[in-house]
Amino acid sequence: MFMETKFQSDQVLIRQYLEGKETSFEILLNRYKDKVFSYIMFTIRDEMLANDIFQETFMKAIRTLKKGGYNEEGKFLPWVNRIAHNLMIDHFRRNKKYPTTNGGPDFDIFDIIPDESKTVEETAIHGQLMGDIKKLVHQLPDDQKEVLMMRMYFDMSFKEIAERTNVSINTALGRMRYALVNLRKMAEKKNISYVN
Q1: Which residues make Cβ contacts (< 8 Å) with residue 9, sequence separation at least 6?
Q2: Tens digit of pLDDT for each residue in 67-89?
Q3: What is the DSSP string of 37-70?
Q4: Mean pLDDT along residues 37-50
Q5: Could you give the number of structural domains in the chain?
Q6: Tell me, what CATH number does 68's domain have?
Q7: Crossing angle of the two packed helices 76-94 and 22-44, in degrees rounded to 10
Q8: Least confident of 46-55, 72-81, 105-114
Q9: Whether residue 26 has pLDDT greater than 60
C-alpha cells in the first residue's frame, strides 16, 4: 500500500492528504525536502536560519492546503519554493538586508541534470565536465547566476523569475542570455566543449 502511494502524482497525494491521509503529505515532504532546503540554503547561507525557514515553509504549506488555498495544478514544488522565497524576503525586510545570490562552495546547479551515462568511464567524464561547468557558473555575475539557478534548478518561468527578482521579463531574459553567452565564452577559453 505504501509503495503504491509513494509513486502517486503530487495532485493525488494532495487530494489524499486533504481527505485525511496524513502519510500522503509525508511523502510529498520527503519527495521535495532536499530541493526546497537547497533553495533556502543557497539564498540564506546560514544553516540554522535555513532550517527555521524550511520548517516555517512546510507549516505554511500545510495551513494553506487545509484552508483550501492550493490551486496550482501539478506545480507543488514551485508553489512551495514561492512560499519559501516569500518567507526569506520577509526575513530580510525585517532585518533590512537582502543577500546577493552567489552560492556557497558546495552549491551545484548541475546536480539535477540527469546522468544518462552507461559506463564507469562515461560517468567519470560526465562528472568532470559538470565539475568544470560548476566552476564556470560560480564566476558569473550574481544577477546572471540567480536567473540561471531559478530557471534550470527550480524550473521557474521567466515571468516568475521577473516577479521574484523585481525586474521586467525582458531583463530576466537578458540576464539568462548573458549567463549562457558568458558560460560559452568561458568554456571555449578553457577548452570545455560541453556547453552549447
Answers
A1: 74
A2: 888 876 668 888 898 899 888 88
A3: HHHHHHHH--HHHHHHHHHHHHHHHHHHHHTT--
A4: 84
A5: 2
A6: 1.10.1740.10
A7: 50
A8: 105-114
A9: yes
Cell numbers 516569500 correspond to what residue? Answer: 86
Q: Which of 153, 144, 136, 140 is nearest to 171 (CA)?
A: 144
| pLDDT surpasses 70 at 171 | yes
Residue written as grid cell 537547497: 38
Do 75 and 113 have their domain in common? no
pLDDT of residue 44: 77
Residue with cell 503529505: 25
**From residue 81, how far is each of 133, 137, 140 by CA, in Å?**
25, 22, 23
Q: Which range marks the domain in which residue 180 is found?
A: 109-189
Dist. CA 78–CA 81, nearest whole Å: 5
- Asked if 99 contacts 45 with a C-beta cutoff of 8 angstroms, the reply is yes
Give the chain's count of helices (H) and strands (E): 9, 0
